[in-house]
Write a structure and sequence with these properties.
Layout (H helix, E strand, L loop, with lengths): L11 H10 L3 E3 L15 E4 L2 E4 L11 E5 L4 E5 L4 E5 L11 E2 L5
C-alpha cells in the first residue's frame, strides 16, 4: 500500500475507502516492490484494518501470504526472508512484522 509502511506512497482513494468502510483486511499489490525497499513492508494497519501487499518477486517462487485464521496469524514468504504477524492484537498496537531471526 505504501513505500515504507508509514510514509504514504499509495492510492489516497484506497486509504479513504478503508477509513470509511473499515474492512477487516485488504489485499493489495499496488506497489510491487514495497516489501523489498529499505524500510518497506508487506503489511500495515489503517485503523483496525490489516493491509497486505506481498510484493512482486521475479523467479520460480512468487512471494506468498499464508493465513491461519484459527491461530489468527499470517506468514509472509519471499526468497530472501520470512516474517509473521499475529492478527488478534488491538488496533493501535501494531509496530511492524516479526522477521525470522535467520532471515529464512
Amino acid at each position: 500500500m505504501s513505500w515504507t509502511g508509514k510514509e504514504f506512497g499509495g492510492d489516497e482513494f484506497l486509504v479513504e475507502w478503508i477509513q470509511r468502510f473499515e474492512p477487516d483486511l485488504v489485499l493489495s499489490g499496488h506497489i510491487h516492490n514495497a516489501p523489498f525497499v529499505s524500510h518497506g513492508s508487506w503489511i500495515d494497519r489503517v485503523g483496525k484494518t490489516w493491509v497486505f501487499n506481498p510484493g512482486k518477486q521475479i523467479g520460480l517462487h512468487p512471494t506468498c501470504l499464508i493465513f491461519d485464521l484459527e491461530q489468527m496469524s499470517v506468514e509472509w514468504y519471499s526468497l530472501e526472508e520470512q516474517a509473521s504477524q499475529q492478527l488478534d492484537i488491538p488496533a493501535g498496537t501494531f509496530i511492524g512484522p516479526a522477521v525470522a531471526a535467520d532471515g529464512a
